[in-house]
Amino acid sequence: MAELIIPNRIYQPEFECMDRAERRALQLKRLKESIERASVLDFYKKKFKELGITADKINSLDDLRRLPITTKQDLRDYYPFGFFAVDRSKLVRIHASSGTTGKPTFVGYTKNDLDLWSTCCARFLVAGGLTPDQVTQIAFGYGLFTGGFGLHYGIEKVGAAIIPASSGNTQRQIMLLKDAKVDTVICTPSYALNIAEVIKAQGLKKGDLAWKFAHFGGEQWTEEMRLKIEDALGIYAFNNYGLSEIIGPGVSGECAARTGMHIQEDHFLVECLNPETLEPVAEGEEGELVITALSKEACPIIRYRTRDLSKLFWSEPCPCGRTTMRMSRVKGRTDDMMIIRGVNVFPSQVEEALMKVGGIAPHYLIELYRPGNLDQAVVKIEMLPETFSDKMDELQKLKNSIDREISAITGIHFDIQLVAPNSLERTGGKAKHVADYRGLKID
Ligand SMILES: [Zn+2]
């Protein structure tokens, strides 16, 4: 059984450690309520009518599979407020998901929704070591993005102090960390790496800071990356998961055993489906997460296709005592998947390979080209200042070992380009790992 790396604390044991049969009964009751709430929306009204669904015809959780799937495109089609099920006077907050393609998607919250959201965040924060006597620093952007505000009110619920630093300005972040003796930092894993680099460049050592815990979200990362960050900063890094279409952060998070993220099952019904057939996959098998929000009032979303690939586990009990289903870290999004010369490759696989090789920094950029009819895949990897040299034979040796690791995991040979330390672009938020130029004409 996995060991608990920090003291085991549970924010709401009455729900997190609930008897499973009891929880299923609660889920069914809430699912019916959610269908009632969704029935006022044109999108669901039409779908329910087509499928002959009403709340009183849902008699068990297995009936969930009879309900319609909701996609990002559906949300876009009803832009801006077509998925809002309450009167404007009941709304107290509106966020939006990042609109990388076209317009964003709005999500609304009632007073009860905000309470639910902060409670879900408080649960994973407490599971990952947060106590009321700590000082926390939020280095997520405060804005339309749900990360900043979601974590803010979760921390407030636990009763810890918050420094709302927001994203960017790494020098100032480090000054705050040091001077305010911050215990816990909230940011993306790639930003934690930036902070680690600057701390090192400033000559600060692990012991110079009070920093003990980090809660990472907002982007995909690997177990190898966790080890690297924990080693560089002398902290424990915990993973959490969520998405704005469902609520924001708070859908699931790790406990002190770190054997997967506990899903807040009393509020979210999570299915893992084969992305092609939409049939459920077996326990421990990879599939796409499809999530139904059970308690939300403003935007009662049903069976939302997240595009996130993960695995679900429920048979093995967790040593922390929580009885909820756990999910593995998200491997990638089905729409992040690169098809290179006919082979499916995820950026996380390249990252996993790179982390196995010494002498390079965890900063990389995959570039895809198609000069003729054949895909060309390049990966630019930053070297560490201490290994950066112009000795061709050493560089070739390093390139060979990188090629070996990447091709062993992905089955693809990349053109490996070692670049100078700090030469790849840094962002305050989500790291950009792929640039696909294959649709563009390059002469
Ligand atoms: Zn646990």
What structural keywords apply?
443 residues; alpha/beta; Rossmann fold; GMP Synthetase, Chain A, domain 3; 2 domains; 21 strands; binds zinc ion
Q: Any ligands, ions or cofactors bound here, and which?
A: zinc ion
End-to-end gap: 57 Å
Reported for the largest beta sheet, the result is: 9 strands, mixed
Helicity level = 25-40%
Helix vs. strand class: alpha/beta
Please, what is the average pLDDT? 92
Number of strands: 21
Number of DSSP helices?
Answer: 11
Strand content: 15-25%
Number of domains: 2
Going by CATH, the homologous superfamily of the largest domain would be ANL, N-terminal domain
CATH 2nd-level architecture of the largest domain: 3-Layer(aba) Sandwich
Dominant shape:
globular
Widest beta sheet: strand line-up: 4-3-5-6-7-8-9-14-13
CATH class of the largest domain: Alpha Beta
Write down the Rg: 22 Å
- CATH topology of the largest domain, by name, is Rossmann fold
Low-confidence stretches: none
Folded structure, characterized:
The protein is of the alpha/beta class. The protein folds into 2 domains: 290 residues, ANL, N-terminal domain (Rossmann fold); 99 residues, 2-Layer Sandwich (GMP Synthetase, Chain A, domain 3). The chain is built from 11 helices and 21 strands. The strands form 5 sheets. A 9-stranded mixed sheet has the order 4-3-5-6-7-8-9-14-13, sandwiched between helices. Strands 10-11-12-15 form a 4-stranded antiparallel sheet. Helix 5 packs across helix 6, helix 7 packs across helix 8 and helix 8 packs parallel to helix 9. It is globular, with a radius of gyration of 22 Å. The chain starts with 12 loop residues before the first helix and ends in a 7-residue tail after the last strand. 42% of the residues are buried. The mean pLDDT is 92. The site of zinc ion has 6 residues, from loops.
